[in-house]
Design a protein that fits this description.
- This protein has 469 residues and is α/β, with parallel strands linked by helices.
- Helices cover 46% and strands 14% of the residues.
- The protein has 4 domains: 127 residues, Rossmann fold (3-Layer(aba) Sandwich), CATH 3.40.50.2300; 168 residues, Rossmann fold; 74 residues, Helicase, Ruva Protein, domain 3 (Orthogonal Bundle); 65 residues, Arc Repressor Mutant, subunit A, CATH 1.10.10.
- The protein has a 5-stranded parallel beta sheet with strand order 2-1-3-4-5, sandwiched between helices.
- The longest helix is centred in the first third of the chain and has 31 residues.
Length: 469
Amino acid sequence: MEKILVIDDEKSILDLLSAVFEKEGYAVETSLSATRAVELIGNDDFDIIISDIKMPKMSGMELLRYVRKNRPDIPIVMITAYGTIKQAVEALKEGAMDYIVKPFDVEELKIIVAQGLEKKRLKEENIFLKKELKEKYDFQNMIGKSKVMQEIYNLIEKVAGTDSTVLVTGESGTGKEIAARAIHYLSTRREMAFVSINCGALPENLLESELFGHVKGSFTGAVVNKKGMFQVAEKGTLFLDEVGEMSPWTQVKLLRALQDKRIRRVGGTEEIPVDVRILAASNQDLKKSINQGNFREDLFYRLNVISFEMPPLRKRKEDIPLLVTHFLEKYCDGMDRQMKRVAPEVIDVLESYPWPGNVRELENVMERVVAIEERGTITKGSLPKEMLQPNDKQDMTPALQPGFDLNAAMDEISSGYVKQALQFSRGNLKEAANILGINYRSLRYLVEKHGLKNANRENKGSFEEEHVV
């Protein structure tokens, strides 16, 4: 039951407002003086205060200043006579929520009080939610309260204290690297480096050099000796993202490094000892890759000492409201925008959407909304149009016609999805590849095949590096 404190030196006013608000379901405390009100405020919690301005000994303005200094969380409504409206305006400047003029309309006062209480509730809910995100659900930057995420938190805490190799699996955008970072920062190696490398984003010869280093003159462009990521991560953690994209030759060298805890730089002969914890991730079914001859079985078992799967967002939809709040706060702060309110209908849409890009896709949507939406409230109309299309489960496959070309039809479908991914990623090929669940090289092939090199001009980076221009 929400509690109201009413202060006025006229007992008839106190009796009237007590009767009115108790009938509305509130608990009401009254005081004939501001000095007595100060004692009550110090000993009890009130949700809103209604105070007369003109009172003997201590005025309502003095009480207002006391409340603003000592209990700024309590909204206060001032009552004034016609002759002191100037004081009421001054009260607003001092921090009063509103004022009402005697003789007042009880219905108007009820509306003002209801609005004040609603604002206070929203503020408290926002503070509470932020506290939950920070203290309860923010597990090393992993946001979620669902049962499946709680199980992952527990497993991460257990494995972090060991030096075992961990394989994290899951679809693109589910947060595999965030989970790896959580393991590192909860481990005894947290004071040392966490080094991450995407094995699918580099050509074979460059990946080998990045991992193990090279010696001067070992290949064209090797003008100085260079340390590899194994040496950079010494005493720390090396995270191998999309490890299933490694070429067979690089897999052999990685296996040897894991077995012997020694590496050899490209073009070098010296065996260099390394002390590194290996964490790996893949969005592929590595057992299927083994059967297809694309991944070494012995390397798989070296990496798969401890493994867990990051769940797709569609299997943890109860976490969507928390994630939305987290990303809104992140991008509103980053873009210096006022924190936006989310209409309930928006959460319904977000929870019904399948999220093929998972948490990364949700983050992209929230960033887009903050950047584009000028209003203070996010509505369905703020979301991308493709998210608002009805989920039509009917078979929309066109009927076969004479001369049908299956390859052409498949190319058209492929081109459409690649275009969507490029739009979501703003032309960033690595990000688009993650959204589509394919490797970087495969996406580059599709972009060139479908003539999409000029499909997105929002970015000015080089296509040869990361972006479609």
